[in-house]
Amino acid sequence: MSIAKEFREFAVKGNVIDLAVGVIIGGAFGKIVDSVVSDLIMPVVGLVFGKLDFSNLFLVLGSMPPDTPQTLDALRKAGVPVLAYGSFITVAVNFIILAFIIFVMVKQINRLKRQAPTEPEAPPATPEDIQLLREIRDSLKR
């Protein structure tokens, strides 16, 4: 079997296509959650903690060049090593929210699967040899 044929069979399998769709939807969903966290949740959290902006929380680990603004972006552009723990907090909150949303979705899907009405299965057909034995029995009874 040629490599091209094997690859084509692999690529069109249902599992591979399902995985590709999941990755694409997951990427788009991740952007939505990023926006929810950075645009909706973190401003509220910052307001609660005294207008704190987590994205600008950092510790400078090296010497700063003179006339460099005290912002994370400016320090990074200047090549100053910084410990950006505020960015980590934002990503951690993002992960917790994403994990919670996925948990709720999976829980709801499982609940719907349990509630799905299952049609009673038809009894399996009686094997032919059993039918013949029953006919013989019935004819002997007569």
Short description:
With 142 residues, the protein is mainly alpha-helical. It is 67% helix and 3% strand. It has one domain: Non-ribosomal Peptide Synthetase Peptidyl Carrier Protein, Chain A (Orthogonal Bundle), CATH 1.10.1200.120.
Describe the structure.
With 142 residues, the chain is an all-alpha fold. It has one domain: Large-conductance mechanosensitive channel, MscL, domain 1 (Non-ribosomal Peptide Synthetase Peptidyl Carrier Protein, Chain A). 67% of the residues lie in helices and 3% in strands. It is built from five helices and two strands. Strands 1-2 form a two-stranded antiparallel ribbon. α2 packs across α4. The radius of gyration is 31 Å and the shape is elongated.
- Shape descriptor: elongated
Q: Report Rg.
A: 31 Å
Give average pLDDT, whole number.
81
Number of helices: 5
Order of helices and strands: HHEHEHH
Biggest sheet: strand arrangement: 1-2
Per CATH, the architecture is: Orthogonal Bundle
- Biggest beta sheet attributes: 2 strands, antiparallel
Question: How far apart, in Å, are the first and last alpha carbons?
Answer: 64 Å
Share of helical residues: 55-70%
**Annotation, overall tally of beta strands:** 2
Unreliable stretches (pLDDT < 50, length at least 5) are none
β-sheet strand percentage: under 5%
Number of domain modules: 1
CATH top level assignment? Mainly Alpha
- Quickly give the structural class: mainly alpha
- The CATH homologous superfamily corresponds to Large-conductance mechanosensitive channel, MscL, domain 1
Tell me the CATH topology: Non-ribosomal Peptide Synthetase Peptidyl Carrier Protein, Chain A
